[in-house]
Amino acid sequence: MNTPTVRPSDRPSAVVLLSGGLDSATTLAIARAEGYQPHALSFRYGQRHAGELAAARAVAARLGVTRHEIAEIDLRAMGGSALTADIPVPQGRSDSAIAAGIPVTYVPARNTIFLAYALGWCEVLGAADIFIGVNAVDYSGYPDCRPEFIRAFEAVANLATKAGVEGHSRFRVHTPLIALSKAEIIRTGLALGVDYGLTRSCYSPDTAERACGKCDACRLRLKGFREAGIADPAPYVGIR
Question: Distances in Å between the alpha carbon of 4 and those of 7, 9, 152?
């Protein structure tokens, strides 16, 4: 039996949060593979590692999205994070240290804010699905990456929107990476055609956008590639 061709107009729209990192790129590839018409949403929020936005553009172009928006917000006004304030980014921490507690790179309420923007765009698009690349296995202990947070936000989404109250949509927040190790994420992305050489994950890159190899994000990423038995194609200081 022949499989019917799915035209773009037949695919449901979804908003995919795209930072330009490894996890979000994989999430975008998964959304496409699952038959969604992806609308990518990135943020310039005052992050010190704003070079990730160039990576987000490259990933969106390579994987193909219906539309890519970069929202401008400024979380530096509140500070409180090494990513938005003049606070040193931790480097050289052990796996056990990374897994213990909430690090200073946590940006207060960041995923809550990002998901709220994605929800608003969903209402405008008439979409019901949001994809976010949070992970609760190989991650930095951020409270807004946990399954219970995602469930709570999904409940709020269906209580606090016109579409939800009127019953036009039942909003769903998809977290396809939530229970995967970093190595499993990498293998999944490679099978879906993700070019990880385009992605950037480092919290403290140099002026040439080469990763430091020492911050928590780099260490988790490098660990994932080692466990996957694959060399990380992204540029690192002192490596390439």
Answer: 9, 14, 37
Q: Which three-class secondary structure state does DSSP give residue 11?
A: coil
- Domain 11-228: state its class: alpha beta
In the chain, where are the structural domains located? 11-228
Neighbours of 201 (CB within 10 A): 27
- Please give the pLDDT value at position 7: 45
Sign of CA dihedral 34, 118, 67, 47: negative
> Rounded to an integer, what distance in angstroms lies between the CA atom of residue 221 and that of residue 159?
36
Could you report the per-residue pLDDT of 183-207, keeping only the tens digit for each? 999 999 999 999 999 999 999 999 9
Confidence of residue 148 (pLDDT cuts 50, 70, 90): very high
User: What pLDDT was estimated at residue 239?
Assistant: 63
Please determine, for residue 168, whether its predicted confidence score (pLDDT) is greater than 90: no
The SS3 of residue 126 is coil
Handedness of CA 149, 155, 156, 157 (dihedral sign): positive
